[in-house]
């Protein structure tokens, strides 16, 4: 089971790199925001997996909770902020 | 129990992969929100259920379930907020057929 | 209700704040204290007292925001928390919703992994007959989570929905989902809505 979790952690890290592609190349700003949200959720999962690997799960779960809250608030605030602009942001 | 946890984790990873591929392959912003709002949510839910099963019945699993509920509520909401911002600022959508037909 | 509170300030607290207010305070207190217990994970006397102080402070500061929601006309209506307390009805809704989520994800997986991606995105727009805010929000949420559709905008009961394939709007055209939500939240049953299909932003109603 430990090796399975290790492999999945590496795979999730690769998925994060794939989402980073959309953040860098996205034609509009909203695509970048979507990519950022995806990186946030996957980063949360990756934190918990790292906690299992190092067997310090209790500390890493608290970190993951903070990360989830920040991710949500960031997405909402940025969405609200760019809603006010009339021209299309890049 | 271990096998059940492994099944949940692997299916969660599958849906996360789908959401990532969708984010890269789909043609425009509004279609990509489908990949993010749905597949990512279910993938995270399944992965967190699997990890909670693997962790056993301790307080940490309860915290994992709270993260699960939070992600299940927050992820579609955040996607909807970004989507609404895009509509308000006039982002055009991609269509296969010609406009008006 | 807010008008009354302003004019009759010297009344007793028990008269000003009704029975429902007390229930909402107790509900919020219990919820926050439960979350405190789970997150702290320690049950010594010091931690419990600290938690009680923090939770009381937060309840005292935020219950007013959650209980009332002022309207532009000066009339106050019940806020998030009161409506949240009727969310136990949502439990009836969860099994159906979870099935719909799994179906939606399988459809998205099929569309994304298909080599040619057989998608034909379209905007749908319609007005709902649902009256309660909670049921309107629940309908928007279930539109997002069911196959092929994402709700983009909701204003005064008018929805804008993005669909990957036009036939996945069939549930909405027949008003099936709307009736499901109305049944669960005891809202009024309405006619199936008039759905407009739009292929560009210019075809949408302003």
Supply the helix-strand structural class of chain C: alpha+beta
Instruction: Bin the strand percentage of chain A.
Output: under 5%
Strand and helix order of chain A: HHH
Strand content of chain C: 5-15%
The pLDDT mean of chain A sits at 85
CATH architecture field of the largest domain in chain C = 2-Layer Sandwich
Give the proportion of residues in helices of chain A. over 70%
Largest sheet of chain A: none
How far the N terminus sits from the C terminus of chain C, by CA atoms, comes to 35 Å
Number of helices of chain A: 3
Terminal-residue CA separation of chain A: 44 Å
Largest interface: A-B, 48 and 45 residues
Return residue spans of chain C where pLDDT drops below 50 for at least 5 consecutive residues.
Answer: 1-10
Q: Outline of chain A, from the CA principal axes? A: flat
Which segments of chain A are poorly predicted (pLDDT under 50) over 5 or more consecutive residues? Answer: none
Rg of chain A is 16 Å
Strand arrangement, major sheet of chain C: 4-5-3-6
Task: Describe the structure in brief.
Chain B is mostly helical and 101 residues long.
Name some characteristics of this structure.
heterotrimer, A: 90 residues, mainly alpha, B: 101 residues, 80% helix
Describe this protein's structure.
The complex is a heterotrimer of chains A (90), B (101) and C (206). Chain A is mainly α. Chain A has helices at residues 2-25, 29-54, 57-83. The longest helix of chain A has 27 residues, at 57-83. In chain B, 80% of the residues lie in helices and 0% in strands. Chain B is built from three helices and no strands. In chain B, helix 2 runs antiparallel to helix 3. The longest helix of chain B has 30 residues, at 59-88. Chain C has two domains: 2-78, no CATH class; 88-203, Alpha-Beta Plaits. In chain C, 54% of the residues lie in helices and 14% in strands. Chain C is built from nine helices and six strands, in the order H-H-H-H-E-E-H-H-E-H-E-E-H-H-E. In chain C, helix 7 crosses helix 9. The radius of gyration of chain C is 22 Å and the shape is elongated. Chain C starts with a helix and ends in an 8-residue tail after the last strand. Chains in contact: A-B, B-C. Chains A and B meet through helix 1, helix 2 and helix 3 of A and helix 1, helix 2 and helix 3 of B.
């Amino acid at each position: 089971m430990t090796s399975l979790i290790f492999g999945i952690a590496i795979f999730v890290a690769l998925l994060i790199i794939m989402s980073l592609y959309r953040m860098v190349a996205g034609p509009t700003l909203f695509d970048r925001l979507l990519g950022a949200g995806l990186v946030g959720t996957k980063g949360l999962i990756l934190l918990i997996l790292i906690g299992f690997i190092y067997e310090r799960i209790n500390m890493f779960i608290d970190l993951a909770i903070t990360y989830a809250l920040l991710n949500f608030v960031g997405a909402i605030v940025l969405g609200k902020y760019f809603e006010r602009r009339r021209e299309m942001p890049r | 129990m271990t096998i059940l946890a492994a099944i949940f984790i692997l299916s969660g990873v599958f849906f996360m992969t789908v959401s990532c591929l969708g984010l890269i392959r789909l043609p425009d912003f509004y279609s990509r929100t489908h990949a993010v709002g749905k597949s990512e949510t279910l993938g995270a839910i399944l992965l967190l259920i699997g990890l909670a099963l693997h962790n056993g019945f301790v307080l940490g699993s309860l915290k994992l379930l709270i993260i699960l509920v939070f992600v299940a509520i927050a992820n579609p909401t955040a996607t909807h907020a970004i989507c609404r911002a895009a509509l308000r600022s006039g982002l055009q959508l991609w269509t296969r057929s010609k406009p008006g037909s | 209700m807010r008008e009354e509170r302003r004019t009759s300030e010297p009344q007793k607290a028990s008269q000003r704040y009704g029975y429902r207010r007390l229930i909402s305070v107790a509900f919020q207190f219990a919820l926050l204290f439960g979350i405190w217990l789970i997150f702290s994970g320690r049950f010594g006397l010091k931690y419990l007292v600290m938690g009680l102080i923090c939770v009381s402070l937060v309840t005292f500061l935020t219950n007013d925001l959650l209980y009332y929601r002022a309207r532009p006309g000066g009339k106050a209506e019940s806020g998030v928390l009161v409506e949240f307390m009727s969310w136990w009805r949502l439990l009836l809704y969860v099994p159906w919703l979870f099935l719909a989520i799994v179906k939606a994800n399988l459809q998205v997986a099929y569309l994304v992994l298909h080599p040619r991606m057989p998608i034909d995105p379209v905007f749908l727009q319609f007005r709902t007959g649902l009256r309660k805010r909670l049921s309107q929000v629940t309908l928007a949420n279930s539109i997002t989570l069911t196959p092929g559709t994402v709700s983009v905008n909701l204003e005064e009961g008018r929805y804008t929905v993005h669909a990957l394939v036009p036939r996945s709007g069939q549930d909405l055209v027949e008003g099936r989902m709307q009736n499901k939500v109305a049944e669960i939240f005891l809202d009024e049953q309405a006619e199936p809505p008039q759905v407009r299909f739009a292929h560009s932003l210019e075809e949408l109603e302003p």
